[in-house]
Amino acid sequence: MNKKWIYRCIGISVIIAIWYILNITELASALVLPSPTDVFMTMGILYGDISFWKDILFTVMRMLAGFSIGSVIGIAIGLAMGYSERIYDMLEFIVDFFRSIPATALFPLFMIAFGIEDGSKIALSAWTCGLVITVNTMSGVHSAKQLRIKAARTLHIHGFDLLRKIIFPEALPHIAAGSRIALSLSLIVIIVTEMFIGTDIGLGKRIAEAQQIYATQEMYVAIITAGFIGYFVNRCAIAIETRIIHWHGK
Question: What is the fold of 34-244?
Answer without folding.
Answer: MetI-like fold (1.10.3720)
